[in-house]
Every structure is written in C-alpha cells, then in structure tokens.
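anyone seen this seq b4? input:
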Amino acid sequence: MRWYQQTKYTIALLLVFAIFATTVASGGLTLAEPQMPSREQTLIVDIDGGRVADPTNWNWLVPNSRRDQGYHQLVMEQLFYVDFETGEFIPWLAESYEYRDNFTTFVIHIRKGVTWSDGVPFTADDVVFTYETFLKNPQLTYSAEVAYWIKSVRKVDDYTVELTLTHSNPRFHLLDIAGTCATWGGMDILPKHIWADKDVLTFKFYPPIGTGPYTLVNASETTFVYKRRDDWWATKVFGIRPAPVYIIYAWYGDENARAMRMAMHGLDSICDITPGTFLAIKAKNPYITAWHNGPPYSWLDPCPRYLSIPWTKYPWNIPEVRRAVSYLINREELISIAYENSSVPTWGPFPLYGGLTPYADYIQDLIQNSDWVTTYNPSKAEAIFKELGFKKGSDGVWVTPNGTRLELTILAPSPWIEILRNAIVVANQLKAGGIDAVVKTLEAAPFFDAISTGQYDAASYWAGLPPDPLTTLELWNSKYYVPVGERASADPERYKNPEFDKILNEWEVTPPSDLDKCKELFREAMKIWFRDLPYGVPLAQARKLIPFDTYYWTGWPTADNPWMHPANWWSSFLLVIVGYKSPTTGNWIGGIMPSKIEYTTVYFTNDTPLFRGIDLVWYGPFKAGTAARIPVDDAEFWIREGRASYTPPIPTMTPEVSKELSNLSQNVSNLLDRINALESKVSTVTSMSMLTMVLVIITIIIEILIFMRKPSKSS
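predicted toks r here
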C-alpha cells in the first residue's frame, strides 16, 4: 500500500511537471514586467549642473550643451578611461592604441563585439565619421582642438582607424579628442547611421542611441530615468552586467533639499555638499559615507579653483593689477569660510597629485619668489596701485588715471555650492581692498555661455587637466584664442603670448619619458605664468565632498579602497558602477552591488560562459544541465536569455530506456486488445477512452519507475 501511495504521488508530480514544462516551452506562461522596479533595484544620483532647460536636447556637439544628467555616464562610453587613483589607462570601446612615425600617426584598435543600443555594430565607420564631422564643422564643441591636432583620418579596416596628426604629440592619447576620459569626459563617438543625414547644429538626438548599458526611458527638466539593457555588448565580451535595474539622475534643488533626500534614503549620491551639512545628515543616517572617514571627508578634485579675469578689459590686462588682486585674497580666510577647513590654498592650476610632485618640487624657488600667488598682503596691493597712478575715490574704490573705477561683477554658477561660496568670500575681500566687487549667480547654461564667449568681468571658476602639467597649461595656448563673442574651446580669458606658446609647442613634441627636459620647459613656462597670471588669481585646491548612502548600494570607492575616483558627474562614473579589468593585474576590480541580495537555484539549459553576478562574484562557465545557486537578478537574466530555467531538466532518454519503451509499447497494445474485449462488460465506466488513457499513462510510468530502480551496469 505504501508503494502504491508513493507511486501515485510520483505520477501526479510528473504529470504536473509535464504540463508546466510544455506550457513554458510553448511561451504560454509569461511574467509582466512592472513599470518601475522596487527602490532596492534603483540607484538615484544627483545631477551636477542643476535643472536641464531642454530635456529633449541630447545634441552634445553644440557648445555648452549638457551631458552630466546621465548621458555620458550611462548611455555613451569612451574609447579609453584614466583612473587617477590607480594611475591606470583603461581601454574600453578600443582595445589599444599605438603611435607611428615619430608620434605623428595615432592608430586606434577598436574592440570587436561592441554594438549600439539599437543593435548596429560599433565600427571604424563611426570613429571616422565623428572626426570628419568636427573637421567639417568648425563651430562644434571639439572642432578647434580637432582641427589643430588632426590633419586627416582614415579607416584601415572595420576595427582600425588611423589619425594623421599635424605634428608630433606623444601625449595625444591623453587628450579628450582621443576619445579619452581623463577629467570629466572625452569626445563621444557618434553613431554614423543616426547622424549621417542630420543637421549637426539642430538635430536633438532624442532619444539618444549609445553603446552604454542603459537607455533613456523618461526625461524631464529635473528627472532622467534610465533602464538597464539586457543586450549590452560588455555582457557578451566581458561577462559583466551593472547591478541597478534603473538609474535615476535627479535634481532636487538646493543643498538642504538634496541633503534631506539623502537623510531619508531618497538619494544615493550627491555631487558635493559642505562639511557641516554632511555631518548633519550623517547623524540622521549612519549609512552615509564619504571618501575619508574623518576630516576633511572630501576627495581631491583635479581642477583647482581660481578667480577668472579676462585680458580684454582695462585695467585687468595689466599683469601688475592682476598681482595686486591676488595680494588682496586672504586664502586662509577663504578656506575657513567657504570650505569649512576642508581644503588648502593653491599656487596654480595643478592638483596635489603624486604624479605632479617632481614638477612642483622643481619650481619651489619660483613659488617663493612669486609670493603674490600665496600671500595675503593688502599693503603690497596698495603699493602696486599707487605705483600705477591709481587713487581711491571718496567711496574708497580705486580709480585709474583715466578715471576707470575698479569694478568687477563676479559670475558664479548657482548649482555648485563650493564655487558660489568662493565668489562670495572673494567679493567681500576685494571690497575691503578697494575694488567694487559684486556676485552675480547664473544657472549652468548661461554661466558657461558667458565664459566661452568671453563676455564677463570675472568668474569663480576651475581648471586642470592632469595627469601631465602640459595638458593644463595648454589650455592657455593662443592657438585657442578667439575674439570676444565667439565661443572658445579653451583660453576663456583670451590670453595671447607668443613667448609662452613657443615653450608649450616645444614641450608638446617632447616625450614624457624625457623628464629632465619636461621639467625644464615647465620651469620656463611657470616663470611667465607667475609673472602674468594668464587665467587670473589662484584660490584653492578643489575638494569634492561626495556622500554615498550605503543603505541600498555598497562597494563605493573610498580613500581606504581607492580603486576609482568617485566623481558621479564624470563619464568615468560608469566604471564606478560596473568596475573594470585592470590593465596591471588582469583582474576585474570594483563596481557597486545591492546591500541585500536574494539567491536562488537555476538549471542551465544551454552552455553558459563565465559571468560576474550582481554580487560581484564570478560564476561558471556552466554546461547544459548544471544547477547553480546565483543571485535572483542574474537568474532572471539567464532565463530571459533562454539559457536557464527554474525547473530541473527532463532526464535524457538512454538507449536502454528506449528499448524498454519499445517492449512496453507491445505490452500496451496487448492490453488495449484485452480492454476492447471487456468493453461490453464494463458498465460502470463513463468514458472508456478516459480509462484507456489513464491505464496507458500509469503503465508507462510504472514501467519507467521499475526500469529506473534497476541497478546500473558498471562500465
């Protein structure tokens, strides 16, 4: 009786499984995807530049357009990335590069297997088209830089592009026009099949098509929602997937509004807040972390802050006046008030990164002899003004010999609290020194428009392009000079000095490996720099206090584990999300993951390659029929791909089983004959066909069970 009950239970399970398996195989059972996943599957990031005026315009080719709303972090990808924390140069859309002909030819080897989000392959055609677009259209964002450096571009084959440079440049691979993200972002490659027949100035590129792991699904002035792609090329090529299903870039308002969101787990990352606000929200939300566990908490940004003063207006085009302004800046007070002691003064446009130490050490005497870049000395400022014939008016403001009052309207972008605070403190200090300075706040777009066209008195600004000091000083090479009113890609102050240019041009063709010559050229350039102050007045080293909430997402880089810089407004933030393969070790490092992960068992129905789960653990490779316990998110992905199932596979029929079933078929045939003979005698059965089916099924399953109980033969 027990055997009968056991067999009946087994038969029922097998029949249910057979029906379920048939339904799934035929596509009859589907799960509807929700419109929005749970908070646990969503990463929410602060928009660096504030509200976006036109959320339907994704044409980044036009100067002063926006890319910080998630576009260049999630939708687009770079050929190469630079990790300032590890010093690694990371190939991404490209596999490698090489120089030829004494650094006058730059060859890009494109990674095979990359596709755009619409499925079209990413090839040399896209790269060539992008460079040709800039060469043909001088009014675009990178056009001036591309025209200066690139003579021609040529497709060698589908995955090789050759750039012929205008002259030797052993640092070309570090430039943004090489498709490299060093700081903030680089030149994105355009999908030729989308842009080829479009007007590059008016086409909005909405919705954007990119190679990145996310696609835009919703956009407003303050909120941009991106959804993870199942078909991202890197899943096949690298075996990786980002953990967040959705990523939202959102602008919630001023510092207090954003801080309140994070305190309630409504924001996972803020671009920058003040130390006081950081400590306040950390007291309410212990899951909040920053780069450092203790003061100053912040990360050292590579773009030191300065007071930008153009050369286009009198008397600010007099070097002595610029030095006098610098003497009026009390940098210690600035650090105390604007930074709450979370930064330090700077003497130039270079971050305090280790790679720049040999250069800084080589000019210490110049820094000491140019004390106006570091010293607060109103008396020396007054002496300079008097020597130039300036006099103070009845209102205490200095007046030049031709009657011009020393007035400055300092522009400051309202979205960036650090930059705005600098402007306020500096304006007050200049007022105390006899300069009528006021602060004018602008939204990001009009602020950058004024800077690029040179239509401003002064601005609270920033600069710096490490890792090489030349790439920073190059920003004031007069090759970028354009008249006021035209958009400048660099040198917003309109500085022109042939002597300075000559040094930079010689440095350009000097390999970085010739450190002694590079340092000597740096020294000569800095003599002119300290004398003229081409960009204005140095203020402070940049610091970014970037809080992360670890309640939903963990794995963020920190000073204790500095595998990547934490800037969520840079295009390299993609690597913070997914990590990268270290060129040094060959291992995949970094990436974020959910703080809570559910696991399940799946059965792989097809051979599946090695992959990294959302828990940052590598799994596989798996053969068909293998069972594994993996994160639910990964299980669902492989099921959608048709490579796995939650249901165990049906055992494969062996030759022995086939033979037994053949014998069983004859037995069933004999059984049916007997049933037909007894049909007239079976009056209690309502449906003879149903009885026949039941008997057949029972007979088949009993035979299978009996066969499976036979001991296997040894091989």
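The CA atoms of residues 98 and 107 lie 5 Å apart. The first strand starts at residue 42 and ends at 46. kinda curious what u guys think
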